[in-house]
């Protein structure tokens, strides 16, 4: 069949990882070739071993996942052919290597286990019936997985190229601190000056002399007046003033 399996072009989380990759699910590819009892398999092989892959003649001859390191290929994702028809409400993608629980399972239960190395790998879909293969797609282009970085190769010390960035960041931080200090000082001086003006107005009011105007001043007692005992006042009789001739 002319169909070529491929990684979907749209952005997907974990589309390609160190042990898995995602394939676009083929639809309408096997219509007209498949019966209700047929199954579709995915053949996975190292890119340099795909030319030597031979289609199994029956399900019993399907190469299992656990023989990948030696046989350089295996088959997985056995699915009823009806799931790939045009009318099937199936997920748009398939994930190869997603099943971490089937590492030790036998060949009678196909395993979709994690891929052991970055590859690259090639894949193709194979339609199989009761009497063997019936149709197949072309091999995909090589699919390379991500490589994990060894912890021993990571340099914990910062590189020298980042020293200039550190110096610039330090200068900017110092300028920011100086600017913040200047702003706070200006605001504080303004607040302190307003408080001083308020204090001066209050003190001037307190120090201003205040003279009562509703209480008349005390009149001096006439001569000969005194208080004895205290609280009783009396005045001695005064001789009449001498007459003056006018």
Please characterize this protein's 3D structure.
- This is UPK3B protein.
- The chain crosses the membrane at residues 164-187.
- InterPro entries: Uroplakin-3.
- By secondary structure, the protein is α+β, with helices and mostly antiparallel strands.
- Among the domains are: 21-145, no CATH class; 165-192.
- It is 20% helix and 18% strand.
- The strands form three sheets. A four-stranded antiparallel beta sheet has the order 3-2-5-6.
- The protein is elongated.
- It starts with 20 loop residues before the first strand and ends in an 11-residue tail after the last strand.
- The model is unreliable at 200-210 (pLDDT under 50).
Overview features:
single chain; 246 residues; alpha+beta; four-stranded antiparallel β-sheet; two-stranded antiparallel sheet; 8 strands; elongated
Strand order of the largest sheet: 3-2-5-6
Strand content: 15-25%
Largest sheet: 4 strands, antiparallel
Order of helices and strands: EEHEEEEHEE
For the secondary structure, the number of strands is 8
Low-confidence stretches: 200-210
* Structural class by sheet pairing and helices: alpha+beta
Total of helices = 2
Rg calculated over all Cα atoms: 53 Å
Oligomer: single chain
Q: Could you estimate the helical fraction of the residues in percent?
A: 10-25%
Described by the principal axes of the CA atoms, the overall outline is elongated
Give the terminus-to-terminus CA distance. 161 Å
- Give the overall pLDDT as a whole number: 78
Transmembrane segments: 164-187
Protein name: UPK3B protein
Keywords: Membrane, Transmembrane, Transmembrane helix
Organism: Promerops cafer (Cape sugarbird)
């Amino acid at each position: 069949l002319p169909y070529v399996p491929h990684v979907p072009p749209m952005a997907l989380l974990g589309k390609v990882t160190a042990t898995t990759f995602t394939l676009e699910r083929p639809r309408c590819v096997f219509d007209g070739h498949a019966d209700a009892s047929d199954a579709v398999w995915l053949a996975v092989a190292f890119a340099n071993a795909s030319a030597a892959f031979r289609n199994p003649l029956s399900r019993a001859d399907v190469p299992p996942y656990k023989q990948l390191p030696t046989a350089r290929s295996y088959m997985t994702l056995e699915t009823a052919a009806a799931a790939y028809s045009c009318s099937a409400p199936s997920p748009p993608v398939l994930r190869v290597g997603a099943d971490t629980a089937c590492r030790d399972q036998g060949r009678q239960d196909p395993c979709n286990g994690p891929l052991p190395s970055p590859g690259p790998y090639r894949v193709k879909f194979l339609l199989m019936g009761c009497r063997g293969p019936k149709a197949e797609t072309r091999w995909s282009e090589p699919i390379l997985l991500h490589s994990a970085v060894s912890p021993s190769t990571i340099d914990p010390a910062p590189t020298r190229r980042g020293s200039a960035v550190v110096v610039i960041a330090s200068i900017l931080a110092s300028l920011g601190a100086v600017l913040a200090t200047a702003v706070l000082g200006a605001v504080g001086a303004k607040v302190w000056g307003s408080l001083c003006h308020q204090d001066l107005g209050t003190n001037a009011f307190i120090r201003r002399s205040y003279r009562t105007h509703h209480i008349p001043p005390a009149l001096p007692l006439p001569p000969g007046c005194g208080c004895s005992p205290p609280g009783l006042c009396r005045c001695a009789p005064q001789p009449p003033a001498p007459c003056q001739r006018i």
